[in-house]
Design a protein that fits this description.
The protein folds into three domains: about 90 residues, Orthogonal Bundle (Helix Hairpins), CATH 1.10.287; about 80 residues; about 70 residues. It has twelve helices and no strands. The chain is elongated, with a radius of gyration of 24 Å. The model has no long low-confidence stretch (mean pLDDT about 85).
Length: about 250
């Protein structure tokens, strides 16, 4: 294995999966034999074959992990490797993170039959387990914060309302606030916390506080839009409660 797949893909060795997929789409258009003149067919076919092989390895977390290790050893033999091999902990965190993302994607795109058979819930649970492994075992990893956020989202979507589950959820929200007071996902986590307070805990007063905070300090379109949806839901609850009070007065 002498080819450098990162050079073939024209991406940095630390590139995320999104960048790798984007690079593949771009280069596939460049090297596809149907997109090249007849006199460049052989060259294009060879380039496309190399690109496809590189992509098949780098898009798969397990294969990429093994490739990165063998690449480091190869460079070390030639005196060109960095002082120490890739951080194994970071590699494991990346592997678990990607597994979590893949299972989460499967659960989100499951067919009606798969949902009825419980396969979607199975994938959701596998995703939660993978994300929990990342932020619990590798808290210093660059994937830890996003893994905790994704765990919160997936957990909040489950039908579980047991007291022990709700307590664990609250502890996780508190953990996020303690570890990432100015985190990349702070707004999204606060939005999820508002959903949790409103839909899981049925704590309208606390939900209103979080929604007011989001309306005041966050103007991002997606966050704002989702916040307004929750606010409208709260308004509906208030109107329903007010109608109930009026009916009680009439009866009285």
């Amino acid at each position: 294995m002498s080819e450098d797949y990162y050079k073939i893909m024209e991406v940095h060795p630390k590139a995320g999966i999104e960048m790798i997929e984007k690079a593949y789409r771009t280069l596939a258009m460049r090297y596809h034999p149907d997109k090249n003149q007849p006199h460049r067919q052989s060259w294009a076919e060879e380039k496309f074959k190399q690109l496809s092989l590189a992509y098949s390895v780098l898009k798969d977390p397990a294969q990429r992990r093994e490739y990165d290790r063998s690449r480091w050893v190869r460079e070390a033999d030639h005196g060109g490797a960095e002082a120490s091999p890739p951080d194994v902990g970071e590699e494991e965190a990346y592997f678990q993170f990607r597994m979590g993302c893949e299972h989460a994607e499967k659960s989100g795109s499951a067919s009606a039959l798969a949902i009825l058979l419980g396969k979607a819930e199975s994938d959701r649970e596998k995703a939660r387990t993978a994300f929990e492994d990342v932020f619990s075992k590798y808290p210093g990893s660059k994937y830890a914060e996003e893994s905790l956020y994704r765990w919160l989202v997936l957990s909040n979507r489950t039908p579980d309302h047991r007291e022990i589950f709700l307590k664990k959820m609250e502890e996780r929200f508190e953990k996020y606030a303690d570890h990432y007071p100015s985190g990349t996902w702070s707004a999204e986590v606060k939005l999820e916390f508002a959903r949790f307070r409103l839909l899981k805990k049925k704590d309208v007063r606390e939900a209103k506080k979080v929604i007011h905070y989001l309306r005041t300090y966050y103007s991002e379109s997606d966050i704002r839009r989702e916040t307004e949806v929750l606010a409208e839901y709260l308004d509906g609850l208030d109107q329903k409660k007010e109608k109930g009070r009026k009916r009680e007065k009439v009866r009285g």
